[in-house]
Amino acid sequence: MKNVVGIFRDRERARRAAEHLRRGRVPADRVNLLVPGTDALEAVRTSDTEQPGMGKALGAVVGGTAAGTAGMGLGAAAASLLVPGIGPVAAVGLAAAALFGVGGAIGGAAAGGKLEEKMSHGIPRDELYVYEDALRKGHSIVFVLADGEGETEFARSVLEREGAETLDAAREDWWVGLRDAEAAEYEKDGGHFSQDEEPFRRGFAAALHPERRGRRWEEIREDLSRREPEYCDLPAYRRGFERGSEHARGLSQSFERRGAEDLVEK
């Protein structure tokens, strides 16, 4: 499977792109949509063909609002998730929900092992930090698990036609938002950020992978040395990893503080 991603500033254009994709040559269960906000599911049309009890079953799994999406044709479920560091997010499609750790449960509740197994291949977790950054900015994300060149090119053309930003552009936008502050911090100790930026950035991103968040360098160094052997032993890479870990903790703590403040206000 090839992962094809488009990031949209406009929610309606993201929804429209997703509908065009499933009406074309991409099977509905491989078209996924992520939208920030508590009211996101209101924009997703449902159908009378929803199976009785489906919403209740999915809601019990994810602890939020859920609905069948047969009318829109975007997979088997639309779930409202509370994502640490972001807030409420609507995940339409099983792979979209799986990015945040609930896809296996939803797949089991919605359609059993076959759909869950299909959904598990190609989920783009390596770029999760880019999606999270986009959602924090209020952007919506469409991603397709495309099978073969035909589906891949079709998906790219639809996303481009609807005005999507590419994943590469979003990744650069994410780093631009962090770069100046990280450069200033790096150079406090006499480092040359312009020379060390590439390994530093790679280490920073490595710390944000969902399988590494909250883990100490000593725990995962061996894994990182296999994945990025040309960078892992460089001091700048280690420094980037530590800064990335601090960044992730800061986002999580900020989210928790906002939640506590909301409870106090209520």
> Would you tell me the structural class of the helices and strands?
alpha+beta
Mean pLDDT: 78
Determine Rg (CA atoms, Å): 19 Å
Low-confidence stretches: 40-76, 103-119
The helicity comes to 40-55%
Q: What would the principal axes of the Cα set say about the shape?
A: globular
Order of helices and strands: EHEHEEEHHHHEHHHHH
Terminal-residue CA separation: 46 Å
Biggest β-sheet: strands ordered side by side in the sheet: 1-6-2-5-4-3
Topology of helices and strands:
Layout: E1 2-8, H1 11-23, E2 31-36, H2 54-62, E3 66-67, E4 78-83, E5 87-92, H3 94-98, H4 103-110, H5 113-119, H6 128-136, E6 140-146, H7 148-161, H8 167-187, H9 193-207, H10 217-227, H11 235-265
Antiparallel strand pairs: 1-6, 2-5, 2-6, 3-4, 4-5
Give a structural overview.
- It is a single chain.
- The protein has a 6-stranded antiparallel beta sheet, with helices on both faces.
- With 266 residues, the protein is of the alpha+beta class.
- It has 2 domains: 2-165, no CATH class; 170-265, no CATH class.
- Helix 2 (54-62) runs antiparallel to helix 4, helix 6 (128-136) packs across helix 8 (167-187) and helix 9 (193-207) crosses helix 11.
- It has helices at residues 11-23, 54-62, 94-98, 103-110, 113-119, 128-136, 148-161, 167-187, 193-207, 217-227, 235-265; strands at 2-8, 31-36, 66-67, 78-83, 87-92, 140-146.
- It starts with a strand and ends with a helix.
- The radius of gyration is 19 Å and the shape is globular.
